[in-house]
Design a protein that fits this description.
Length: about 150
């Protein structure tokens, strides 16, 4: 489990009260102990929120609110099936190298609080805000996790 918090950097310094958590759980079944091949499942959830100032538009009244203060929350849930292998790196078996790849899906929802009825966020140039957390696409998407690990056994 990871906790997310506001970190002062140029990329996200425009956000206040950035907070949340992320959890990734992997279950693995080693079907060949000699070669250390495994199949597994991964489940993930990430939820964070932040205070933002963004431009909003009401299409019906053709009204625009510039730098309107609001609170955004982003929730992502997902899962995947994994395949991978572990290889011993050291003679005593304390160091191992693991690689895996998977295929699955994820679902993201983004909610904004304190936004007047009928207004939506203007997103006419998504490349201009590539570091903004809330520019992610809502809805279902394909998910292809891949991991490389160096493992040390105590």
């Amino acid at each position: 489990m990871n906790y997310l918090y506001h970190f002062k950097s140029d990329e996200i310094s425009e956000f206040d009260n950035l907070k949340g958590f992320r959890s990734i759980t992997s279950l693995k079944y080693y079907y060949n102990q000699k070669r250390a091949f495994f199949v597994g499942a991964e489940f993930r959830i990430k939820k964070y929120s932040f205070d933002d100032k963004t431009d909003l538009v009401n299409i019906q009244t053709n009204d625009t609110l510039r730098l309107f203060s609001n609170t955004a929350s982003d929730t992502l849930i997902g899962g995947a099936v994994l395949w991978g292998k572990r290889i011993k790196v050291s003679r005593n078996g304390k160091f191992e190298f693991e690689a895996n790849v998977g295929l699955g899906g994820k679902y993201r929802t983004i909610k904004r609080k304190n936004v007047p009825a009928g207004y939506t966020r203007i997103n006419n140039d998504p490349g201009a805000h590539r570091h903004r957390p809330d520019t992610n696409i809502e809805g279902a998407q394909a998910y292809v996790p891949a991991t490389i690990r160096l493992i040390y056994h105590l």
